[in-house]
Design goal:
mainly alpha; elongated
Length: 173
């Protein structure tokens, strides 16, 4: 499976909004207030989800006593202990994060908008483009039919959200 930072960067990348500018100040992606309230010391300058925090994950501020929850879910090592290698797990909290996290849901919307901008009024072309962007391959005939049914019953956002939850998106082959 991809490392925590790469998962976040991949999600930003398919949405077409990742800021690849090198250097600059750290970013502080949103952390729920109840988590911040449990911390007695240190800083975390919560920034709302938006272009200011859509930079590469290498720029996410690191605080030993408060790990960024999205990264912790995807096995970022404890920053207080030296780690020779990262743990690799697959758990229900990872799936739930990808299904319910506001950041992921917003990026699914941006991914759908990107597809609609690139192939207006051609759902089949949008589906093919979604597979090429997210999985670096075209869909099989069966996958294309299932995707078309999903878009017709739901929306392109539903498809892009599913794409970000596929094993092929989250795991190296």
């Amino acid at each position: 499976r991809l490392e925590a930072e790469v998962v976040r960067d991949s999600i930003l990348s398919v949405g077409g909004e990742i800021d690849l500018t090198a250097g600059g100040p750290p970013l502080f992606p949103y952390v729920p207030e109840e988590i911040l309230a449990s911390q007695a010391h240190g800083i975390w300058r919560n920034q709302p989800d938006g272009p200011a925090v859509w930079r590469r994950s290498v720029y996410v501020y690191r605080r030993r006593s408060l790990g960024f929850p999205f990264f912790a879910t995807f096995d970022l090592p404890d920053q207080n202990v030296a780690a020779a290698a990262r743990n690799v797990s697959t758990g229900p909290t990872q799936a739930l994060t990808l299904l319910n996290n506001p950041f992921v849901l917003r990026q699914a919307q941006l991914f759908a908008k990107r597809l609609q901008d690139e192939a207006p009024d051609d759902v089949e072309a949008q589906i093919g483009r979604a597979y090429r962007i997210a999985l670096s391959r075209p869909p099989t005939k069966e996958e294309a039919a299932i995707a078309l049914d999903l878009v017709e019953r739901g929306s392109m956002v539903d498809l892009t959200h599913v794409m970000m939850n596929l094993n092929g998106f989250l795991h190296l082959r």
